[in-house]
Design a protein that fits this description.
The protein is mostly helical. It has one domain. It contains 2 helices and no strands. The longest helix is centred in the middle third of the chain and has 11 residues. The model has no long low-confidence stretch (mean pLDDT about 75).
């Protein structure tokens, strides 16, 4: 699951980045990171995990218990 980088030279494809706040820009960077993609996939496949590796600075609550 990697980002399509075939059009990276087309400025119009990235014009929306000019209007992003810091947090949104950080998310755009993070979601394209292949190490993050691997860690997210691993965490999403483990129902007991509850969160990603702390190096990503993100926490996701565990699944609700019925």
């Amino acid at each position: 699951m990697s980002a399509d980088t075939s059009r990276w030279r087309f400025a119009e494809d990235y014009a929306y980045l000019d209007a992003l706040c810091g947090a949104d820009l950080a998310w755009e960077y993070l979601r394209r990171n292949p190490d993050y993609q691997t860690a997210f996939l691993a965490a999403s496949q483990d129902p007991e995990a509850g969160s990603l590796d702390p190096r990503w600075g993100l926490r996701f609550p565990g699944r609700p218990v019925a």
